[in-house]
Amino acid sequence: MRSYSPIQKIWTIVIMAAFISLGVASAAIAASLTPQEEKLIRGAKKEGAVAFLNPLFSDRTSKRLKAGFVKRYGLGSNFDLKAIRKGTGATVAQVRQEMKANKFTVDVHLVSDPGFFAAASKRGAYVKLDSGYWKDFTKTIKRAGQYSNYPYVVTPLAYTFQPIWNSSCPGMADVNITSYADAVDPKLKGKTIASDLTKSATYTNTTISLKENGINMSALWPKLKALAPLVEFRTEPNMQIVINCERPLDMWNLSGRVYQNVIKKPGLAKILKIGSYKEGQVMLGNQVSVLKGSPHPNAGRLLVEFLLSKEGADVYVEGEAIYSFRDGYTPPAKAAPYLLDLGKTKLLGMQDWVAARKKFKSTRGEWAKFFK
To answer: What is the sign, positive or negative, of the torsion defined by CA atoms of 306, 288, 135, 125?
Structure first.
C-alpha cells in the first residue's frame, strides 16, 4: 500500500474540501433556478449573444445587467448581452421597422406602449414564453391596473411621473407638492415645466389615466398655462433644467433621475426634492417580449426570465430607481429612499390601455390648445 507524507495528506484534504465546496455552490445555484431557466440555458450558450432594446437602462445598469445575467446562468465570459438604449418613440419605431422587413437586429424589446404590443401580438410577432416567475406578479399587476398578455407579453417593471423640485432655487424653499393643486399654485409662475404630450405616449397615457380616475385635466391645463411654463419633452434634460434653477419644478419627472444625479453629485441629495400626488400615481408599466424570427430566441426568453427574477429586479431597481411589479418586492437599500412604497400608495392604471390609443388625438389636442 502506498503511504503519504503528512504534507501530501494535508493537500489531499484541502483539494477534496475545495471540490466539495464547489459542488455545494453549484448545487445551490442550480437549486435557485426554475425548470424553465434550466431548459433555456443550453440553447442560450449555443447562441452566444442577445440584443436588448429599451429606453430606460443607463450604461451602468446595462453593464450590471450583463454581468448578473451571465453569472446567474453560467453563460461564460464570451457571451455578449448587447443593451441598446433609445427613446420610447425610437424604440417602437425600430421594432416596427424590423417587423415589417422581417429582419431583426434585436431579440428582446422593452418599452411602455401597450397598444403596440397588443397589435404585434395579434400579428403573431412574438415568441411564446414559458415563465416560472410570471405568477409572482399577478397581484401587483392587477392592483396597479396594468396591461399584459401572457404568454407573449409580460410587464416586469414600471415608472411613474412625480413632481421634482430644487429647494435651493429662489422662491422654492417652502414648496411642497402633495397634490395637483400644489403643482399649479400661482406662486410657481415662471418656475415650472409643462411636459409635451404631443411627443410622448407616456405623458399622454398619464393624462388619460388621470381623467379616468376623476382628475379634471381640462381645468388643470389653463392653470398650468397661467404659470408661463417652459414646454419640454424628455425627463433627463428637464432634470438639468431643474438643477440649474432655470425652471426649478418639473411636475412630471422621475425619481430615478434624482437618484442618478445624486450618485454623480451627492450634495444634490440635500436640495432636490421628490413629491407625490395624493390623487394617485399613474404606473406606466413597461412591457417586454421576444421577437419571433430574431437570431437568439433562447437567450431572449432567458433574458426575460432574468428580468422577472428577484435577482434581475434588484439590478435594474438599484440602477434606475424604477419599480418592479413582483408581489411583495423589497427594493435594494440604496434605491429605496427614492421609491414610493407600492403597498401604501394609491396606484392608478387604465380601464383599457389598448383602447386608450384611440384617445390620443383628442387628449393631445386639448393640451395643445394651451401650449402650442
So the answer is: negative
Report the 10 Å Cβ neighbour count for 45.
17
CB atoms within 10 A of CB 111: 25
- DSSP single-letter state for residue 110: E
- What is the pLDDT confidence band of residue 5, given thresholds at 50, 70 and 90? low
Lookup: cell for 293: 424570427
How far is 142 from 131, CA to CA, in rounded Å? Answer: 18
* Residues near 208 by beta carbon (within 8 Å), at least 6 away in sequence: 350, 356, 359, 363
| The residue type at 159 | Y
User: Which uninterrupted H or E stretch holds 225?
Assistant: helix 217-225
Query: What are the cell numbers at 72?
Result: 446567474
CB 230 within 8 A of CB 241: yes
Identity of the amino acid at 93: A
For each of the domains in the chain, give its residue range(s) and CATH number, in order of start. Answer: 35-153+286-337 (3.40.190.10), 162-282+351-371 (3.40.190.10)
Question: Read out DSSP for 258-270?
Answer: HHHHHHH-GGGGG
What pLDDT digit, counting tens, does each position of 159-181 carry? Answer: 999 999 999 999 999 999 999 99
Cβ neighbourhood burial of 86 (10 Å; 0-12, 13-18, 19+): middle
Asked whether 232 and 193 are in contact (CB, 8 A), the reply is yes
Cell numbers standing for residue 298: 433562447
